[in-house]
Specification:
mainly alpha; two-stranded antiparallel ribbon
Length: 242
């Protein structure tokens, strides 16, 4: 694709070399400039030099004619070829074409959401099946083994049941909402309907539910100390008054 792009650029550079050729019959005498009546001034190559400037009206001698070169232009299928190559590259590396090229022309909001969801599913597979299982877990197990052996961590029965202490909840980086209002409403409905736990929703955001609960409790205690009331405080009954 890079070679094709360079070749197209070279064709455009060649196309800028606009040249005109004056064709005349074999002269029987010294050629005369029809504008000045004086003999032509020949260049180093033995041909008369005729400059081309915008708005010039050049009069030719009888029997003379002008012929211009026909340089190659841009290939008609250049945009389609480049797009097809970018689509093949995107498919090969598992990245949506729109995210690889930045070309959002003709993509609706619904289609873009579907594209991003499919991309997220692929990234989540890499996060959990490769990064966590093949990298994070071995590093954690090795670190815990060394910490117990050198006495940095005291676990008396670690040798008998190490798997009980190696259990770790790995939380990947959360994804931002594509449509915050609709996405938050959908999460709320899923939790209230029992289809999803609140801890799962917090984990999808990239946070730990226990840590978030501690922060909420601390915020509530601080609000009570200063006699503050917020709509986010679920302890207050809804009165219907804004």
């Amino acid at each position: 694709m890079d070679k094709f792009d360079d070749a197209t650029l070279l064709r455009q550079e060649i196309a800028n070399l606009f040249t005109g050729f004056i064709k005349k019959p074999s002269p029987e005498q010294e050629p005369i400039d029809p504008l000045t009546g004086k003999p032509f001034v020949f260049g180093d190559n033995g041909l008369p030099m005729v400059a081309m400037e915008p708005g010039t009206m050049q009069e030719l001698a009888p029997g003379e004619e002008v012929e211009f070169n026909n340089p190659p232009g841009t290939a008609a299928d250049y945009p389609n070829f480049m797009k097809q190559q970018l689509m093949a590259i995107a498919a090969g590396i598992g990245l949506p074409y729109e995210m690889l090229s930045g070309d959002m022309a003709g993509v609706s909001d619904r289609a873009l959401r579907l594209i991003i969801n499919e991309f997220r599913r692929r990234i989540q597979q890499i996060q959990h099946n490769q990064i966590i299982f093949q990298f994070c877990r071995p590093v954690w197990n090795r670190w815990l083994d060394m910490a117990v052996l050198n006495g940095s961590v005291s676990i008396p029965d670690y040798a008998n049941k190490p798997r009980a202490y190696r259990r770790v909840k790995w939380i990947a980086h959360g994804w931002p909402y594509m449509h915050p209002v609709q996405d938050m409403q959908a999460q709320k409905m899923a939790v209230r309907s029992g289809f999803k736990s609140r801890s799962e929703v917090v984990s999808e955001l990239g946070y730990d539910s226990e840590q978030m609960d501690g922060e909420i409790a601390a915020d509530n205690r601080r609000a009570d100390t200063h006699s503050l009331k917020y709509d986010s405080d679920g302890r207050e009954e809804e009165t219907g008054i804004n």
